[in-house]
UniProtKB/TrEMBL annotation:
<feature type="transmembrane region" description="Helical">
    <location>
        <begin position="53"/>
        <end position="72"/>
    </location>
</feature>
<protein>
    <submittedName>
        <fullName>Uncharacterized protein</fullName>
    </submittedName>
</protein>
<feature type="transmembrane region" description="Helical">
    <location>
        <begin position="84"/>
        <end position="111"/>
    </location>
</feature>
<keyword id="KW-0812">Transmembrane</keyword>
<keyword id="KW-0472">Membrane</keyword>
<keyword id="KW-1133">Transmembrane helix</keyword>
<feature type="transmembrane region" description="Helical">
    <location>
        <begin position="30"/>
        <end position="47"/>
    </location>
</feature>
<feature type="transmembrane region" description="Helical">
    <location>
        <begin position="117"/>
        <end position="139"/>
    </location>
</feature>
Amino acid sequence: MDRQPHEPPFARPELLVEMRAAERKERREGIKLIALGIAFFLIGVFLCVVGNVWTGVIGIAFGTMAITVGAAKAMGGTSPAARVVMIIGCAAFAATGALALIAGIVAPAAFGWRGGMSGIVAGALCLGFFGPGTLILIYKEYRLRQRNARR
């Protein structure tokens, strides 16, 4: 190893090049996710206008989730703004699950030949994972900000 023990890892230019390449890849993936989210959002709006309101609202919530998560990835993921945007994305995914669960109960015909049970199962799984996940992310962000405020 040609690096001294006290030398920071960024003193090696090849590591810096790899880190920048990884950041560019994350940014590109974030932009692609934003584009996909916009498509889901617009299709959801179209479905609401055409008459399939439940599927449209679920599409809008899913599109919102994809846009916010893509924005967080494009920002870099570790900044305070990116963490808040990721919390919003997780909450939007929980909302997608809640809407699918409600739609499966209230309007099972919205799921077509699959029936309302598919909406109930998918919605419960989505809400069961991302609902507590949102609360955990909010708690972690709160603790991090409290810790930083004390310093």
